[in-house]
Write a structure and sequence with these properties.
Largest sheet: 5 strands, mixed, barrel
Oligomer: single chain
Number of strands: 8
Number of helices: 8
Radius of gyration: 18 Å
Distance between the termini: 41 Å
Order of helices and strands: EEEHEHEEHEEHHHHH
Structural class: alpha+beta
Strand order of the largest sheet: 1-2-3-5-4
């Protein structure tokens, strides 16, 4: 995979949503990005989850904004008067995650905005696979932009890495949170979605996504190069095992049966 690297040049405004304090900023390519800072919330783990979840979504034909790696140097945002933001920028020096800003996009309402059952089924399949707890009716993390449905914010996925213990057990989780998914009521074509997605999620593709993770993101808590290699390999094995050994269709259909 080739992910662009750009330098942040202008801090525009904080986006005070949730606890991570992302921001709208401009890079040296002239484009505006929603910046996910490595110094906020769950730090690098949230960036890793967001990056991998979004790229897997893109790989299976769902619309997600372009992602870029954004370098933040020590001089960026010095004119910002908010001490909380100044601290966040200081802790975020190095590579951060940028998501292309979809100007004018509207929040998707799963009951007011139309979505076909095939697309809904693919989205539910995706979130079951990446264990994304944050696609509920209260917070869909979906936008309507140019009359198309776009997925954003996958930072709550792969939650096993917050404890980093027994990843094999976590890879086999039946993910009970799928019962709260915003599109579960529309996921009526799971078998078709399963066939389609599995035809696209090759091991080479998943390896490419994992290999694209910046080395410095994998060294949280002052980890070493060895730690980074081991963590990268764990993500790789987690994805492989989950794809091979979890019956995603059955889990979703069982959840739908209980919902109905």
């Amino acid at each position: 995979m080739e992910i662009r690297n750009q330098n942040l040049t202008r801090y525009i405004t904080p986006l005070r949503e949730g606890g991570s304090l992302p921001a709208l900023a401009e890079a040296d390519d002239g484009f505006k990005y929603v910046v996910k800072f490595r110094g906020s919330g769950h730090r690098e783990k949230a960036l890793i989850a967001d990056f991998m979840g979004s790229e897997i979504a893109r790989a299976v034909g769902l619309k997600v904004p372009e992602q870029v790696f954004l370098n933040l140097d020590e001089y960026f945002g010095q004119a910002e008067g908010d001490e909380e933001i100044q601290d966040l920028l200081k802790w975020s020096q190095g590579l951060n995650l940028g998501v292309h800003y979809l100007q004018g996009a509207m929040t998707f309402d799963p009951y007011a905005n139309p979505v076909d059952d095939a697309t809904a089924s693919r989205i539910v399949w995706l979130d079951m696979f990446i264990t994304n707890v944050d696609r509920t009716v209260k917070n869909t993390n979906m936008l309507i932009w140019h009359n198309e449905l776009w997925l954003i914010d996958h930072g709550a996925s792969f939650y096993f890495h917050h404890s980093w213990s027994d990843w094999e057990k976590s890879a086999l989780t039946q993910f009970p949170y799928i019962k709260d998914h915003a599109l579960l009521h529309k996921a009526t074509r799971m078998k078709e979605a399963d066939i389609y997605i599995r035809s696209r999620l090759t091991q080479d593709l998943l390896d490419g996504i994992v290999d694209a993770l910046p080395e410095e993101w994998l060294k949280w808590d002052e980890g070493t190069d060895k730690d980074a290699r081991e963590r990268r390999e764990t993500y790789r094995m987690f994805l492989k095992k989950r794809l091979q050994d979890v019956d995603i269709v059955k889990v979703v259909e069982d959840a739908r049966a209980k919902q109905i």
